[in-house]
């Protein structure tokens, strides 16, 4: 056989392998989209945010599989997410809408820089264009659909439009008359110019309608009408469940009612094939007690823990669409302590910026999600209103006869500041309490201490009860190979299949080239 004839079957086989590989990747993406997930939003208004490698190790240690980033820069975080298996919803900031909405060339360059150059090693699944533009930045609304179209066209040019979907997050305020859900409708001033063209785009590209939905605000604005239990996914007696009089559907929680209000609004415009993706939802763990009394760690724990179980365990959809469980991104992973505004604005995070829990989540049975389940962790700290003289005596005893480890509150150490008796006592009390195995009576100190489930760690000062979490983070940071293995295992079937195909090509090549 002449040598030149060998290239024909090899070329054909290579094309076949490439085609099957693309089909397999598309099928994997479709499978991912059909399985509901809980992701987290990652903001950056944080005074002590973990560096990208440590942050990614932290995500892996918590078994977090989906993240939403508000800004594609800095690129080091996107690169650090490479080959981890973590799916990324990549944000386009509002201040970039003008460039992307008025220049297809700018959109192409944006996709090339932030997507094509990184994908598929960094698994970008969605691009969220702007944030609540129609309600918070109406002057930029005319730029929204052109930006969506040009970014999608750039993805088509890169043949990534099947794997990466483009949409834009909306505030719940675009839906009017949402309770009960069945009469809900989109704000009429937005329909013809924005919502109808947007829904046509989402339907044609099989992209989701992104919504930021906060039962917390619904409850705060309707106190006395909306029960707190209904807002926190806590069970209500059947007689107190919300019933839609038009559909007779029973609503056991505000979250499902808000989602169905969106579906009814779309149905009123004859769109039934667009799914809802909840890009933000959550509950603040702290607020001004005078004006935000329900922003506390207990309610935040209840809402987020029950939300996670609602999506990952129950998977019961909504009353209107019981077969479709929407995926959600919790707002947010870390407290953004630099955010201005009310006290609650800086206290939506599941964790502080250094990776210690802001409060305890109860997420058992969710397949390892948020693996550092801290349900059984408690701390011993100074009680409110503790007598100053008794407090000093208790501190002296704890660091003396009590043999607590007080080295971290010495000058120059991580927990020396703030240099107050109260702050030092909390650290010493917790050290003694943890040394005693959190046994009954080991957090008494003549009545000046109390047990709390809120982690008192701050900045670089890690309390003894948090050392385990801190060690887990460091262990994950030192395990880059193990972190990569997590991502590899998620894609193992496809990777092994492709590897087998490459071996097959090599064997066939050798056979054809061997002398007869």
Structural write-up:
It is a single chain. The protein is of the alpha/beta class. The chain has helices at 7-34, 52-61, 75-80, 97-102, 104-116, 133-136, 141-157, 188-205, 215-221, 228-231, 254-268, 297-314, 388-399, 421-435, 467-477, 480-490, 492-513; strands at 38-42, 66-69, 87-92, 123-129, 165-167, 169-171, 175-176, 185-186, 209-212, 242-243, 250-251, 276-281, 328-330, 379-382, 449-452. The strands form four sheets. The protein has a nine-stranded parallel sheet with strand order 5-4-3-2-1-13-12-9-6. Strands 7-8 form a two-stranded antiparallel ribbon. Strands 10-11 form a two-stranded antiparallel sheet. A hairpin with a 6-residue loop joins strand 10 (242-243) and strand 11 (250-251). Helix 7 (141-157) packs parallel to helix 8 and helix 13 (388-399) packs across helix 14 (421-435). It is globular and about 75 Å long. Residues 1-8 and 468-503 have low confidence and may be disordered.
Question: What are its keywords?
Answer:
516 residues, alpha/beta, 17 helices, disordered N terminus, glucan endo-1,3-beta-D-glucosidase activity
Shape: globular
Question: Biggest β-sheet: count, sense, barrel?
Answer: 9 strands, parallel
Round the Cα radius of gyration to an integer and report it.
27 Å
Q: Strand content of the residues, in percent?
A: 5-15%
**Uncertain stretches of 5 or more adjacent residues:** 1-8, 468-503
Q: Structural class of the helix and strand makeup?
A: alpha/beta
**Can you count the helices?**
17
- Number of E strands: 15
Distance between the termini: 9 Å
Report the helical percentage. Answer: 40-55%
